[in-house]
Design a protein that fits this description.
heterodimer; A: alpha+beta; 2 domains; 13-stranded antiparallel beta sheet; 17 helices; 35% helix; disordered N terminus; B: 352 residues; 1 helix; 7% helix; globular
């Protein structure tokens, strides 16, 4: 039976949320999830069975199952576990539901933060979660002495340290690029803390810069977004999302902000639903502006290399060729992130599962772990499977390799592997999903595939003759040649038919169009004459594209943080220009301003 | 009035006397505290619980342990101010350097966001305000008991620094590329070619031979380097590794067990032994080098041993395993000494 009080119980929060969202839309001319969608997101999170701060917040805000929510909160505060992954949703729940809590509950948070020492972590997302939460809590309780905090620092000390960290992180990210770039998994852990900080940071300038950082993260995502998939190379991917790109944590926010959809609701959407933040229309435009094919370049930084490297951070050049039907994206190769790097991939604009083709050298080593983590390399290698079960497997689908070099121009990619004999994986694997419409094996040396309107051809060079291994969801194309080289070509139904694509590739004859030696590959393919020169001594490799337009700004560019039709930023400038659909928006991190 | 004054003067005196008694009993002959620094447990995952890690102390040779400081600490090392009798303690941890000035009852992280993954901390016992920190990203110095930290302008300032030792008014820095020395009085570091070696892990002085340094890396590098001796080839008893003599260098490579050696320990005289712990257990050789290495691993259930300690009061060898806690060597063999499941990173014995 529907009673007036029960109706009010559901309607009132929706009306309040509608008021909040409308208020911001009126201010900024921004669109985004409607108040109804926000309320629905809250209801979906509230109904999730797991005990989380996000679920508790959703229940309390909606006024449903509140007795259960308070009991759950009691448990969460009595038995904190999870370090900074506990801390950031605790902060979110506290601040988004502050008005619903009694002084006694607020004091429980304070007492918990006196007793529980969360590990600060060792990555950018960890530090953001840790210092973002500390900033807000120390701002909330400004006068507390050191003994009131788990780390022995006073509120004033905690606030100053957190602010200093966040300020320099914003500057470094905007000027030099982040180190945990384009992660389908961990973007989620940037967006949520930044939402909370954007809503509750008291310092006006810092709050604006944090909100601009949130916009930059979403714009960075939007530029490589294709219908639910995060395209191109990723610093950190997941075992599932790497083979099924739409099944990534980041897609939860893409659905919410880019698609106005609740097609993939994860816990943190509870905070997004309560946040005042609306995604600027121009970022939503960038996520969908796929009418024309375009090149997109990004410069990022490696994760900090504490050992075995001459520099703490090495430069990472990313390149994407985006089309309405697919995106081919890559980075230079090499090892820039431990364990979870995804170096290249073709992502199809398809809603089928496993809408991707990619390759890797599935190696693992104590040296890789020692490069990025402080403990004994050999001990880490011996115990890593306790925390990252797939890492040591030579059939894994995620991970970078120091023996991989990648060269891409538009829809052509050349991959080069020179693998020493004594490695954990003496082979190179390619992932071909079973959801492809067509696979033509060995068409004049090519393997040619189609998924909807996108075509992919793969050709191994030299002695490499791949074996086909059938697995549950895919074919594994394995080359056991330690010096594997292969070429990947992509095409679109907007350019030609599939039959024409097959004919074009089979017309590429090794004698006339492909020359491969130990230190050079010369290939004349669909995108013209490409020459790759390999520097065995460890210096710069070179790719010469003879047919590239003379004024092509992207080829060879290393001075831009972003360069493409939608995003532009010079390294070091701290200024990001967005363009889409006749709109412009400039984030000036130096002055903390937004210009439109 | 007189009575009140007497009371006021009596109470502080009583407290002082009690504190003195406490100090005397805690520093009596043979008294010692064994500290175990626990990195985590086998189920450790970044982002999940890291309970039961951090600093533990035992005053009975590992028969019982007391946890000190935050329970949830990715801890690597510890030190304390000897003159304070354990009153001032430091922990090197992932979150930074933690300091206690009340014998471990309360703690403060005395470093900030710039300093992370602190692998070792060392107090200058001659000048306890001077504290040194080794981190995965460089070497830091504090001259005010940790209140502020700076990087010296010296060779060891950057890069992976694993461990510190204090000898002859110098900080010996075991870094990724070798052993360097820092002179805190003048704030200058030195790094010579004799000290260049891959991944040193532990260092002991064995008079009259010189300084022994262990390294980790590939099997071909699993050996000890004999450093800073005027002529390392002079002594015929040293078990040198086969290979060409490194002419012009004041060091020789010594034979050692085939393993990554994480810790070295020199037991007390008169029958001093040199112990080596690594990923193939515990091995020992007389410090006179009169006989060859002997494998002591025996019944130890975990061959990955990361830390060693010697309890002078009982002449007992302690071993910290990576994942199975602490073990004590008795006549019958190895006996479990608590902290089961712990990844023991360092064992430290203090005279209080």
């Amino acid at each position: 039976m529907v009673t007036i009080p029960s109706l009010l119980r559901w309607l009132l929060p929706a009306l309040l949320l509608a008021w909040g969202a409308h208020d911001l839309s009126a201010q900024n001319g921004e669109q985004g999830p409607s108040a109804d969608q926000r309320a629905t997101a809250l209801r979906r999170v509230a109904a999730m069975p797991t005990r989380t701060f996000q679920g508790i917040a959703a229940k309390l805000r909606l006024g449903v199952d509140t007795a259960l929510a308070w009991r759950q909160l009691d448990t969460m505060l009595a038995r904190p576990t999870g370090d900074m992954f506990w801390l950031y949703p605790a902060a979110g729940m506290y601040f988004y539901c502050r008005d619903l809590m009694t002084d006694a509950w607020r004091d429980r948070f304070r007492q918990t933060l006196r007793l529980y020492t969360p590990y600060r972590g060792d990555t950018e997302n960890h530090f953001l979660m840790y210092y973002g939460s500390l900033l807000l809590f120390s701002q909330e309780w400004p006068g507390l002495p050191g003994e009131a905090w788990f780390n022995g620092k006073s509120s004033r000390e905690n606030y100053a340290e957190a602010k200093e960290y966040l300020e320099q992180w914003i500057d470094t990210s905007a000027r030099q690029g982040i180190t945990e770039w384009d992660s389908p998994r961990y973007l989620y852990y940037y967006v949520t803390p930044l939402l909370t900080l954007s809503d509750f940071t008291a310092d006006t300038l810092l709050r604006r810069r944090l909100e601009m950082t949130l916009e930059m993260q979403l714009a960075d995502y939007a530029a490589e977004y294709l219908d639910g998939s995060y395209c191109g190379a990723h610093a950190r991917d997941g075992d599932n999302s790497v083979i099924d790109p739409r099944n990534s944590e980041a897609n939860s926010y893409a659905q919410f902000y880019f698609e106005d959809s609740l097609g993939f609701v994860l816990h943190d959407l509870a905070f997004a639903a309560m946040s005042r933040f609306s995604c600027p229309e121009i970022i939503r435009c960038i996520a969908h502006d796929r009418g024309k094919m375009f090149e997109h370049l990004e410069m990022k930084r490696s994760r900090a290399k504490m050992r075995y490297a001459p520099e703490l951070h090495t430069a990472v050049r990313k390149y994407d060729y985006m089309t309405p039907d697919y995106c081919m994206g890559s980075m230079d190769g090499g090892l820039q992130q431990p364990i979870q790097q995804h170096s290249w991939g073709v992502t199809f604009a398809s809603r089928r599962p496993n809408n991707t083709i990619f390759g890797l050298h599935p190696q693992s080593s104590a040296e890789e772990l020692g490069t990025f983590f402080p403990e004994e390399p050999e001990l880490m290698a011996a115990t890593i499977t306790q925390s990252k079960a797939s890492y040591a497997s030579d059939t894994k689908w995620v991970g970078g390799s120091p023996y991989e070099r990648l060269f891409q121009y538009r829809s052509t990619l050349i991959a080069v592997y020179d693998i020493p004999e004594k490695t954990s994986a003496p082979h190179v694997d390619l992932f071909l999903p079973k959801t492809l419409d067509t696979i033509i094996r060995d068409a004049g040396g090519w393997t040619i595939c189609r998924m909807e309107g996108a075509f992919v051809g793969i050709r191994f060079l030299g002695r490499a003759t791949p074996e086909w291994i059938e697995e549950e969801r895919n074919w594994r194309l394995r080359s056991n040649d330690l010096h594997t080289r292969y070429i990947v070509e992509c095409g679109s139904a907007r350019e030609m038919t599939f039959e024409e694509f097959v004919a074009a590739l089979t017309a590429i004859r090794p004698a006339d169009h492909i020359q491969s030696t130990e230190d050079e590959i010369h290939y004349i393919g669909r995108n013209g004459d490409m020459q790759v020169r390999l520097n065995a001594a460890g210096g710069e490799n070179a790719m010469i594209v003879r047919d590239a337009p003379a004024n092509d700004p992207i080829q060879g560019s290393r001075g831009n943080l972003f360069l493409g039709p939608h995003l532009k930023s010079r390294i070091g400038s701290g200024v990001l220009e967005m363009r889409c659909g006749g709109m412009t928006r400039t984030l000036d991190f130096v002055h903390g301003t937004i210009r439109e | 009035m007189i009575s009140n004054m007497a009371q006021r003067s009596f109470l502080p005196r009583l407290v002082t006397v009690l504190l003195m008694i406490a100090a005397i009993t805690s520093c009596d002959a043979g008294a010692e505290t064994l500290y175990a620094v626990v990195l985590g447990n086998p189920k450790f995952v970044v982002g999940s619980s890291t309970l039961h890690s951090g600093l533990f102390a035992s005053r009975d040779g590992g028969r019982s342990w007391t946890h000190m400081g935050p329970e949830n600490l990715k801890a690597y090392s510890m030190d304390g101010v000897d003159a304070s009798g354990g009153g001032t303690l430091y922990i090197a941890a992932g979150n930074g350097v933690h300091k206690s000035t009340d014998s471990g009852r309360s703690w403060k992280i005395v470093t900030d966001w710039r300093i992370t993954e602190v692998l070792d901390v060392k107090v200058d016992q001659r000048n306890p305000g001077r504290v040194f920190a080794a981190t995965a990203y460089g070497f830091w110095v504090s001259t005010d008991g940790g209140a502020s930290w700076d990087r010296p302008i010296a060779p060891p300032a950057e890069g992976y620094i694993y461990r510190l030792a204090y000898r002859d008014r110098q900080v010996i820095i075991l870094g990724d590329s070798g052993v360097s020395r820092f002179e805190p009085e003048i704030g200058v570091g030195t790094f010579s070619s004799e000290d260049r070696m891959p991944a040193p892990r532990a260092l002991v002085e064995i008079p009259p031979f010189g300084t022994i340094v262990s390294t980790v890396g590939s099997p071909t590098l699993n050996r000890l380097a004999y450093l800073r001796s005027p002529d390392p080839y002079a002594s015929g008893s040293l078990p040198r590794a086969p290979g060409p003599r490194e002419r012009g260098l004041a060091r020789a490579l010594l034979q050692a067990p085939t393993m990554n050696i994480y810790d070295l320990l020199l037991s007390g005289s008169p029958d001093s032994m040199l112990y080596a712990a690594g990923d193939a257990g515990v091995h020992a050789i007389p410090a006179s080098f009169a006989s060859s290495w002997k494998d002591l691993t025996g019944s130890l259930p975990n061959r990955m041993v990361h830390a060693l300690a010697w309890l002078p009061s009982s002449g007992t060898l302690m071993a910290g395993t990576f994942g199975d806690g602490v073990f004590r060597r008795e006549r019958s063999g190895w006996v479990a000494a608590g902290l089961d499941g712990g990844q023991i990173w360092r064992l430290v014995v203090k005279p209080w």
